[in-house]
Amino acid sequence: MSSPRVIKKYPNRRLYDTAQGTYITLEDIKKLVFDHAEFQVIDANTKKDITQNTLLQIIIEQEATNAPLFTTAVLQDFIRFYHEKSQTIFSQYLEQSMRFFIQQKEFFKNQWQSYQTLFSDPALMQAFKMQKIWPAAPRAEPDKKLRKNTVK
């Protein structure tokens, strides 16, 4: 496994990608996240890992848009958890819940793509429509319940 890409953050708040040898923006870091690239943001002076702070900056920018992910109540609850003994448990729960949600999202995405592929075939679509109109072959013997309710 290769070591993560190193991004250095300088006192002037500029981010330097050591792999590319160029300055980058938070938007570029966001693209790295979407690409599932492993990276680490290091403070150039203190050598401290500030990846989490940088990711939080991106979240703050995202939350400032017209479609925030977190409600005020959720953010207030997050702040309260920092002073709880169950902070570690909550952090683990949140991480596992996110993993589960991502797995479920992928599952349903794949299911939807399968259905789209299936119904893009006109012959299969026609067979499906016919199944809806005539879901089963007619029965030779009517149900006893139906016979009781018929008028003589």
UniProtKB/TrEMBL annotation:
This is Polyhydroxyalkanoate synthesis repressor PhaR. Residues 6-64 form the PHA accumulation regulator DNA-binding N-terminal domain. It comes from Aquicella lusitana. Residues 70-106 form the PHB accumulation regulatory domain. One of its GO terms (biological process) is regulation of DNA-templated transcription. Signal peptide: none annotated.
